[in-house]
């Protein structure tokens, strides 16, 4: 029997989460599957298309309850994108679901032409994104998807941080009249938002106010930034934390406000530092003439170490402890 995967959260991080009043929920992927099933039961035009990923996409209950609203194409990601686009062009609210690493690499031309250029209201769901596949290694990591998709016009890109953002992102995609790409990991996530939080694509959510340093994070890294802010507060450092769930279009006003009001800025993402959230924020700040100490926390241009998602995060400093240390080092360098 295999050993359980290491927790994403150290004992100290778990203690900080309890101190901040955060409660551990389920994986965003599970929230996605239940939300899509809810939408599809209310609207027969909502359909799911999978590439032998019904199980890994948590869509087995969807297929059992609504078999006529699920299309299985097998391991054929390019076909998946084409069929997703065709169904959307015929009036369906189509959601193409496939592992992010294969969906965005094997099918890039179809995403560009069939989805974005054709401007169909299709949603592509990249599952097991980032380094969620852990020890399966670089062939299964999707550390490129944000970079390549940011370069394609007419595509909203969302990376939810918790179950709330997941649920709202799927609902927003179902209402939209243009293409979406949404990526999910596999780890259980802490709930980060107050009950009255408003979610809107393209609008960042401020999770914590502060003026010494700003963490601009997206996806499953957001909670680590929030925990780091709690740890820094114990040392008298006040950190602002933004959930930049929408990587494109970027909430430039929130990014510029953070750069102007805080002593340093750190971007955090489960992605290569080239072409992702960090470079998008750096460009926004530079083009606006905002000069501030800046650091990108992500994956460098090297062979990614092998291990679980938790091991990899800790190795690259994407943890409460690692991000707090990065912030202190950046502040001391001024």
Provide a brief overview of the structure.
The termini are far apart. This protein has 334 residues and is an alpha/beta fold. It has two domains: 150 residues, Rossmann fold, CATH 3.40.50.920; 165 residues, Thiamin diphosphate (ThDP)-binding fold, Pyr/PP domains (Rossmann fold).
Total count of domains: 2
CATH topology name of the largest domain, in short, is Rossmann fold
Tell me roughly what share of residues is in helical segments.
Answer: 25-40%
Low-confidence stretches: none
What structural class results from the helix and strand content? alpha/beta
> CATH superfamily of the largest domain, please?
Thiamin diphosphate (ThDP)-binding fold, Pyr/PP domains
Q: Count up the helices.
A: 13
Number of strands: 14
Task: Tell me the name of the CATH class of the largest domain.
Answer: Alpha Beta
Shape: globular
Strand content: 15-25%
Tell me the CATH architecture of the largest domain.
Answer: 3-Layer(aba) Sandwich
**Averaged pLDDT:** 95
Order of helices and strands: HEHEHEHEHHEHEHEEEEHEEHEHEHH
Distance between the termini: 51 Å
């Amino acid at each position: 029997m295999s050993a359980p995967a290491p927790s994403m959260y150290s004992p100290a991080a778990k203690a900080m989460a309890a101190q901040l009043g955060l409660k551990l929920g389920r994986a965003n992927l599970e929230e996605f599957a239940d939300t899509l099933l809810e939408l599809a039961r209310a609207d027969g035009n909502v359909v799911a298309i999978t590439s032998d990923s019904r199980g890994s996409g948590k869509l087995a209950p969807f297929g059992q309850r609504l078999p006529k609203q699920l299309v299985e194409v097998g391991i054929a990601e390019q076909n998946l994108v084409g069929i997703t686009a065709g169904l959307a062009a015929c009036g369906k609210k189509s959601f193409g679901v496939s592992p992010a690493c294969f969906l965005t690499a094997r099918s890039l031309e179809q995403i560009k032409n069939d989805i974005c250029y054709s401007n169909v209201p299709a949603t592509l769901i990249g599952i097991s994104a980032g380094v969620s596949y852990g020890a399966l290694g670089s062939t299964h990591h999707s550390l490129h998807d944000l970079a390549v998709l940011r370069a394609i016009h007419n595509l909203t890109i969302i990376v939810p941080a918790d179950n709330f953002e997941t649920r709202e992102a799927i609902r927003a995609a179902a209402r939209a009249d243009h293409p979406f790409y949404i990526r999910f990991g596999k780890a259980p996530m802490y709930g980060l938002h107050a009950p009255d939080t408003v979610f809107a694509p393209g609008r960042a959510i401020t999770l914590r106010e502060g003026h010494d340093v700003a963490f601009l994070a997206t996806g499953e890294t957001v909670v680590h930034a929030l925990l780091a802010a709690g740890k820094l507060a114990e040392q008298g450092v006040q950190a602002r934390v933004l959930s930049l769930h929408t990587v494109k279009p970027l909430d430039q006003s929130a990014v510029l406000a953070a750069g102007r009001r805080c002593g340093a800025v750190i971007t955090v993402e489960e992605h290569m530092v080239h072409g992702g959230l960090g470079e998008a924020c750096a460009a926004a700040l530079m083009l606006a003439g905002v000069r501030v100490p800046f650091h990108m926390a992500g994956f460098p241009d090297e062979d990614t170490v092998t291990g679980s998602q938790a091991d990899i995060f800790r190795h690259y400093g994407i943890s409460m402890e690692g991000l707090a240390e990065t912030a202190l080092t950046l502040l001391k360098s001024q």
